Amino acid sequence: MIENSFNRRDFLKVLGWGGATVALSGCGNTSVEDGREYVTSYVETADYIIPSIGTYFNSTCAQCDAGCGIMGRVREGRVLKLEGNPDSPINSGKMCGLGQAGVQAHYNPDRVREPLLRNGDKGEAITWEKALQLVSEKVASANPGSVAFLTGGVSGHVKVLLKNYLDAIGSDQHYVYEAVAPSVVRAANKKAYGVEMPRLRLDRAKVVVSFGADFLGTWVSPVHFSRQYAKFRKGVNGERGVLVQVESKMTITGANADRWLAIRPGTEGILALGLVNALSAAGLTVPAEVAAAVKDYTLDRVSNDTGVSVEHIGKLTALLKDRSPSLVIAGGAAEGYAHGSQNAAAVALLNQVLGNVGKTVEAPASMPFPQMAPITGNRSSLQALNDSIAQDGVKVLFNCGANPIYSAPASMNMKESLKKVPFKVAFAHYMDETAMEADLVLPLNSSMEGWGTVVPEYFAEGAQLNIQQPLMEKLHPGTLGMGDVLLALLKQRRPAEYSGYEDYYAYLKNAMVAIKGALGGENEDDDVFWDSVLSQGVVKLTSSSNALVSSASAAGLQLPPPAVEDGTYPLRLIPAVTPNMRDGRHANEPWLQESPDPLTTIVWDSWVEMHPKTAAKLGVVEGDIVEVASKNGAIKGQVYVYSGIHPDVISVPLGYGHEAMGRYSKGVGANAFKILDPVFDQQTGELAMYETRVKVTKAGKRVIVVKDEGPAGGNQSGRRIALRMASGKVNLAEEV
Amino acid sequence: MGKDIREDIAWAQINKDVLKSLENPKKLYWVILLIAIAMVGVAVGCEIYQYQTGMGVSNKSNSHVWSLYIATFIFWIGMSHSGTLLSAILHLMHADWRKPIYRFAEAMTTFSLMTAGLFVLVHLGRLWMVYYVMPYPNERWVWPNFQSPLVWDMFAIATYLSSSVIFLYVGMIPDLAICRDNIHAGWRKKLYTVLSLGWEGTDRQWRNFRITYLTIACFLIPLAVSVHSIVASDFAMSNMPGWHVTSFPPYFVAGALYSGCAAIITLFVILRYVFKFEEYMTLPIMRKLVRLTFAIAMVWTYLNLIEFSSVWYGHDQTAKDQLIFKATGPYAPYFWAMIFFGSILPLLLAFKRFQTHLPLLFVVSIFLNVGMWLERWMIIGPSFAHGHYPWTWDHDQWPSLVQWGIVFGSFGWFTLLFMVFCKVFPSVSMYEVKEMVYHRTLALKNKPAVKGEH
Amino acid sequence: MSITNLLQNWSDFRQQHPSDERPHQEYKWAMSIDLDLCTGCNACSVACYAENNLPAVGKEKFSHGHSHHWLRIERYWHNEDREYADQGAQFLPMMCQQCEAAPCETVCPVGATNHTADGLNSQVYNRCVGSRYCNANCPYKARYFNWYDYPTTADVWPAPMEQQLNPDVTVRGKGVMEKCTFCVQRLTVAKSNARTEGRSVHDGEVQTACQQACPTGAISFGNLIDPESRVAKQWEKQQVKLNHDKQAKDAVHDGDKLRGYRILENLRTYPSVMYLEQLREGAI
Ligand SMILES: Nc1nc2c(c(=O)[nH]1)N[C@H]1C(S)=C(S)[C@@H](COP(=O)(O)OP(=O)(O)OC[C@H]3O[C@@H](n4cnc5c(=O)[nH]c(N)nc54)[C@H](O)[C@@H]3O)O[C@H]1N2
Ligand SMILES: Nc1nc2c(c(=O)[nH]1)N[C@H]1C(S)=C(S)[C@@H](COP(=O)(O)OP(=O)(O)OC[C@H]3O[C@@H](n4cnc5c(=O)[nH]c(N)nc54)[C@H](O)[C@@H]3O)O[C@H]1N2
Ligand code: SF4
Ligand code: SF4
Ligand code: SF4
Ligand code: SF4
Ligand code: SF4
């Protein structure tokens, strides 16, 4: 595919802020009236600032962990729009909607603007000096081991400082929690391939079979996978790649599949083994041990167990056999069960049997600076924190980038649990549910105001280090960067080591210059090196690849038969991760609320999605308010009926139903995290997200579902609008 | 059939009877006037709210951008046609029976137009910029888009309104002189003196008067036909299924005449009752009016059938879908009500005994107009809900109370204008009734054996 | 001011019709959208919000059909009577098609929407009186009306959110119509830069915001006059001619080897957006 290379940089150099005091007179931010000294007049501004012409600064998207490179368009001191950095191998100039909404996180009217100290039910504004003093006292008075950090996924120099701080106070309690993360798949991959997340080459695959991995919408690095998907669809020599998606509730990836196979929930592994068996029967060379292990997975049995027709299993087998290399991926849907690890292992086995390892499953680059490599979060880490609190092991808790009160299942009782911690500090952008419970709230800079380095979780090519730099001056004088706070805390403990750094910027520059050799700048002057790093936004690191294991083995595979129906709670709940909301941390950005959900086109609310058959059985139609009750609680929602879901399941999107956070998110929809059953993956102890069983009952009135789709309901009514044809009729190689 | 008017009414009696209608309004008059003012108040309140807040309060949507305002606009434009029909067309055709009733019909024309015009303003998203629609010399050399039917609309309505006012006024001059001569004090005297332009009833004045009146009548007829054809073009010239219909102009004109005639019947009954105009607004005249109305109703029905069948047998599937949608979708009750009120109910008018049954005619005529209003609503509502593009179809765009308030108020506005007119100007043409009486006596003298009409 | 000027002014409204003798001189902006690549992710739509100062109107107003997505992603199903939508959905980005014979233009009483020399359907906010006739006549329903005064509406751009607004794009007040402009502010900058350097805008030099965001590269945009532009090549290859309302290839039996088509072409709007049909594999 030919790409329009974006050449704005030819005439507008992409820049990096050269100094720590970024001072530009923006509209309303910096003015003499504010009592600020360093207004820069346009008479004497930097030579790259031309009034009315945008300037681009490279940075890194902080909306999810994929770490896409971005270019912020800045004019008259304000960041206006985020565009993808064409030089970032992850997203090569592209961005997702969530990423675009980053500016709304930055300009959000509900941001916390100054440190708040709890006074009864209220937060009282205090100065940073006082806040840091208080932290110092509390930490000093606590037993060193009883100071804990709860964070979301972290990487880069902040991670280094965090580690140093914990070392400095003598604690090893760092918990990393992500409510939605492919933890089980990572563990299963580690076993199967020897690495947690191999590099997936969709662009090389002729067939992709995804067991519920929503790689186009929400999974791991969606923009990167979308780029790959485009290449995969165009195919090698015009042979268009075929996508088959196996899942119980359609994701946007499923909606793009050539065949979407609705599978009985939890039987993904059975289908994978069935395919191994069928492939072996069809003549594919399969290790004897594997063939023996799967011989019971006959076509009929597999079809019976999974609900996938014999015809489709047959066709899929033929497809996989004929078109190699293929790629089989296990994602959220497959891993979300008590036997999630088994499912994922079965899927990995299928990949290995197909001989994809080494072809479409590659070894990922390894991070040469492990201290900066990302720590990925999961739920069991939160459980560990909970246990520690229960044993009185936490006296001071710092929380940054995690909102467990909102996103942990009700069964974990996080709110009560956190109450037992005498002093809780929340680093916050918004007063979210967890910040509301804190004793001290420390307002953070937005990702467009602060300095940082980010190491993406998933490397598209080689290892890389992303730069985060301010795209404009701070909106609120009372906020600080996480790095700055950690540095200040470190100065309290290890003044000798850190007092040389005026601020985090100084530390960062110093740290980066110190490793400039490894960053490809060994012969450069420090400042030249630093400037080029800032203007590139992405530093490519020389790294080696991890080794991949590629021996297929069925040892230890134990797949349970399909679950039997629970009489009281007859349906399964799929808590859906949607491209707009993900885990709900960005719910307060109105573009995301107003951006219609791709599948249902619903806006500004959550919904209860079900198959027409299920709806008929329950006697409900679109718009009926129903109660979805599990053993752990109940939520209400509007019914949306469509045939992209298995009749045995219903689905409610995650991310809605905030009780705090801000005007755009509070009270919008219902929080599905709250009713999840505490069922765990047997091998990793991760929450089995898809194991919750629910009953659905009508709860009164009917509403008009607010959505973009009109009453025609996705039917073109005979008009020739969105057309489709059989791929065999087209020669893509001939197309431009 | 009885005679249209008694031949033995004294001319002085005519003056007396008609001038009496200008005198001391009864209490009921004031009550109704106040109600009308209150209705206008509601509309003004709604409009101020809409102006301040934005068109959104009317509850239209991006796929359904027009609604009651335009429907009611067409309704009032339609209403205006009967006055012209009675005064101009029938005048040229020497249909004498029009004489006692054309004056108020013409007043109706003028006031309906004045009401219709307001809807154009109310409908605009930026009312304050309405003058952009007019071609006026400006520094930027910017002109309106002469291709747009809305610009033709602006011209047509403005011309029609001004011509109607002139026609009404010119036709009233001899009567205004009678008023001047019979009323001796107060503001009325001054008003009539000024307005009657020194009418003395000299031969020369009558000659000039007749030529002027005839000329304006001739001018007005094509105008009346064109104005509603142009309103029809707003729709016919667009590409919206359900609108893009060649037969719309005659269809609109027929509908206009239809609703106008029905309104004349309503007002006929009211004026005859209130002003005790039994001698002038006689039952034989009513019978003729009713027959005319019936004929127009059938023409309208015929044109409806033409439209439906041309859509049905045509190749435009989209338009056909649209028609099916109208007849079976959420708008079906209104659609069928329109058919019932517009085509079935008027069948009653074919029966002789109902043709002079005033209470029944009063009720029926109002329902005919309900039907005609529904016709306009059926052009707007369902078409927007089911156009070319299925993704944006909508069924739930029910007009808000703001819209209803303004539509409701427009009836108050019309009533207000009409009631004030009735008390300030003679609502029956005295000089023409005299002519009619005179013609009749002449006819009786010349042909004593002939019965019935002159 | 004269009658000549009046007539000149009037005829200027329609001078760019493709069948006129005066074709586009230097630029004819056009798009092509590959529906086989569009995943329905909405990135383009959000980018358009960011670039063009579109208000997020909130649930209540959205429910009344007052949304402002100049670029909406439509989602169609092809699963009539089947148990599952098992061939997925079909996503279709729909924005103003920049019709060459735009039905919206002819009906606007004040000429607030008309054709530019670059073949764009322009929208002049200051001139618009808000009659909404253009929307009534747009077959694609791609026009969005300012039902409220969003700049002063609570929670649309509460401080400091207004600082995100793009100064190159007017913030529209109540009562005016708006729609996708093909990011005309970007085109203007590109043209101006090119003019300064005495050349034409070359392919890829300017991107629309939606095109720029689209992760799969489903949207291409460029100058149809420039035979070297990707868009021109795509149109050429797909045998879609701008000034035809029936494409010759559709008459040929073999025509279905080409995916290019324009929506509601039969209405003779001559859209500037060509879509490429979605594909589905028969082997599964
Ligand atoms: N080529 C060309 N020439 C023109 C015009 C045109 O359109 N094109 N327009 C004409 C018109 S209408 C005008 S008004 C004039 C304007 O002519 P100038 O007054 O020269 O206007 P600018 O070039 O906009 O601004 C002048 C300088 O003021 C600086 N400046 C900005 N803010 C401040 C501040 O707070 N304090 C101080 N001290 N300096 C500040 C800017 O950086 C800039 O260098 O130009 C006229 N000349
Ligand atoms: N971003 C930014 N905005 C600014 C300024 C800035 O420096 N930066 N400067 C501000 C200042 S100081 C000013 S004065 C304004 C100027 O703002 P505008 O008055 O909008 O200035 P122009 O764009 O120069 O001219 C307007 C139009 O007049 C047309 N025109 C030229 N000659 C004639 C003529 O003889 N007759 C007619 N009818 N039209 C003609 C031109 O083609 C142009 O389309 O902009 C203000 N806005
Ligand atoms: S995928 Fe994640 S990092 Fe990339 S643009 Fe989207 S939100 Fe930002
Ligand atoms: S798509 Fe609609 S708004 Fe755009 S040019 Fe065509 S008719 Fe006009
Ligand atoms: S809404 Fe504006 S642009 Fe559209 S027709 Fe009316 S005046 Fe013209
Ligand atoms: S071209 Fe620009 S204005 Fe049009 S839809 Fe794309 S981003 Fe929006
Ligand atoms: S960004 Fe691209 S893939 Fe996503 S919806 Fe828009 S056109 Fe489709």
TrEMBL record, chain A:
Gene3D superfamilies: 2.40.40.20, 3.40.50.740, ADC-like domains, Dimethylsulfoxide Reductase, domain 2, Formate dehydrogenase/DMSO reductase. One of its GO terms (molecular function) is 4 iron, 4 sulfur cluster binding. Keywords: 4Fe-4S, Iron, Iron-sulfur, Metal-binding, Molybdenum, Oxidoreductase, Signal. The keyword Oxidoreductase applies. InterPro entries: Asp_de-COase-like_dom_sf (IPR009010), MoPterin_dinucl-bd_dom (IPR006657), Mopterin_OxRdtase (IPR006656), Mopterin_OxRdtase_4Fe-4S_dom (IPR006963), Prok_Mopterin_Oxidored (IPR050612), TAT_signal (IPR006311). The keyword Signal applies. Residues 54-110 form the 4Fe-4S Mo/W bis-MGD-type domain. It comes from the Bacteria. Its cofactor is Mo-bis(molybdopterin guanine dinucleotide). Belongs to the prokaryotic molybdopterin-containing oxidoreductase family. PANTHER family: TETRATHIONATE REDUCTASE SUBUNIT A, TRIMETHYLAMINE-N-OXIDE REDUCTASE. This is Menaquinol oxidoreductase complex ACIII, molybdopterin-binding subunit ActB1. It comes from Candidatus Nitrotoga fabula.
Automatic annotation (TrEMBL), chain B:
It comes from the Bacteria. One of its GO terms (molecular function) is oxidoreductase activity. InterPro entries: NrfD-like. It is found in: Cell membrane. It is a multi-pass membrane protein. Its EC number is 1.2.7.-. It is an enzyme of class 1 (oxidoreductase). Keywords: Cell membrane, Membrane, Oxidoreductase, Transmembrane, Transmembrane helix. The chain crosses the membrane at residues 28-51, 66-90, 111-134, 154-179, 211-231, 251-271, 292-313, 333-351, 358-381, 401-422. GO terms for cellular component: plasma membrane. Belongs to the NrfD family. This is Molybdopterin oxidoreductase.
From TrEMBL, chain C:
Its EC number is 1.97.-.-. The keyword Repeat does not apply. Residues 29-59 form the 4Fe-4S ferredoxin-type domain. The keyword Oxidoreductase applies. Keywords: 4Fe-4S, Iron, Iron-sulfur, Metal-binding, Oxidoreductase. It is an enzyme of class 1 (oxidoreductase). GO terms for molecular function: 4 iron, 4 sulfur cluster binding; metal ion binding; oxidoreductase activity. This is Menaquinone reductase, iron-sulfur cluster-binding subunit. The gene is qrcC.
